[in-house]
Design brief:
Layout lengths: L1 H33 L3 H8 L6 H14 L4 H33 L4 H15 L3 H12 L7 H26 L3 H9 L4 H31 L11 H12 L3 H29 L1 H10 L1
Helix pairs in contact: 4-5, 4-7, 4-10, 5-7, 6-7, 7-9, 8-9, 9-11, 10-11
């Protein structure tokens, strides 16, 4: 009984205490407001969402400048260029040899070349890359960049072989026979008569195939090569920003292919006698 009376008294005292607290609160509130500096209130009123340029600048700082992440992009671009150039050189050599075998009069080299071309052209380049790294060189401690060069060189060589064969067969055989009748050797006929005319047919297609291979090297990250695309993935994993790194890499690929296209266009004009005559007349 006594405990019940004490509990009721405590509840009544608590209920009476709340109005007192509420009554004193308005009197203390002005004093608390007076302690906030006016400059802070003005600054809080001026807070607005960041502009597009502001967000872009912050993205640029986070993805490029912080921790010198631009070095990842630069090193990745250099790796992509190295793989593309070396694979082009290797593929051109393989393509020339395969083209010679494909145009041979003997059945065995012709069959071997045709089989190689059919298999490589019918297999995705990513599968060729992974087979080369994880199967062919699985037990060898080899630099993955070198593996990428070999894989893309094999893929490029199969296409180049057909490009070379088509360009050479497009030259009229009567001109080769005329060169032979004039006393030229087979090598002289090829390099002085056939090849200059075939080059005009080969270069436009060769240019397109080279640019396609340059863009296809973006898959070398599957074997651990830190190329341009892999560098963007590393930056994205650190900043959790997918938009800026991917757009930046797309712009770099577009710029690089555009410059390569201009350089190969210039080479094509230099090997075209008609274009050289027009340039001479214009000057």
């Amino acid at each position: 009984m006594v405990q019940s009376i004490i509990a009721v008294l405590l509840l009544m005292m608590t209920a009476l205490a709340h109005p007192a607290v509420a009554a004193t609160a308005p009197a203390e509130a002005p004093a608390a407001r007076e302690t906030v500096p006016a400059s802070n209130i003005a600054a809080a009123a001026d807070v607005r969402p960041a502009s597009f340029l502001g967000r872009t600048g912050e993205s640029f700082r986070q993805n490029i400048l912080v921790e010198s992440r631009w070095r990842l992009i630069l090193n990745g671009l250099w790796t992509t260029v190295i793989i593309s150039v070396l694979a082009t050189a290797l593929g051109t050599l393989i393509g020339g040899i395969t083209c010679r075998m494909r145009m041979s009069r003997h059945r065995l080299p012709k069959a071997v070349a045709a089989t190689y071309i059919s298999i490589v052209r019918g297999t995705p380049v990513l599968v060729i890359l992974m087979l080369t790294y994880y199967v062919v060189f699985a037990s060898v401690n080899i630099n993955p960049v070198l593996v990428a060069v070999i894989a893309f060189g094999l893929n490029f060589g199969a296409y180049v072989a057909e490009i070379f064969r088509t360009g050479i067969e497009g030259v009229d055989r009567g001109q080769a026979e005329a060169g032979t009748a004039l006393g030229f050797s087979r090598a002289q006929v090829f390099f002085h008569i056939v090849m200059p005319q075939a080059a005009r047919r080969i270069l436009p297609v060769y240019r397109g195939e080279f640019i396609s291979m340059f863009k296809a090297t973006s898959v070398v990250g599957y074997i651990g090569v830190e190329d341009l695309t892999k560098a963007s993935d590393i930056i994205r994993s650190r900043t959790f920003d997918a938009f800026f790194p991917l757009v930046m890499v797309a712009v770099i690929y577009f710029t690089a292919t555009w410059v390569l296209g201009l350089a190969l266009d210039h080479l094509e004009r230099r090997t075209d006698p008609m274009a050289r005559r027009k340039g001479a007349v214009a000057t």
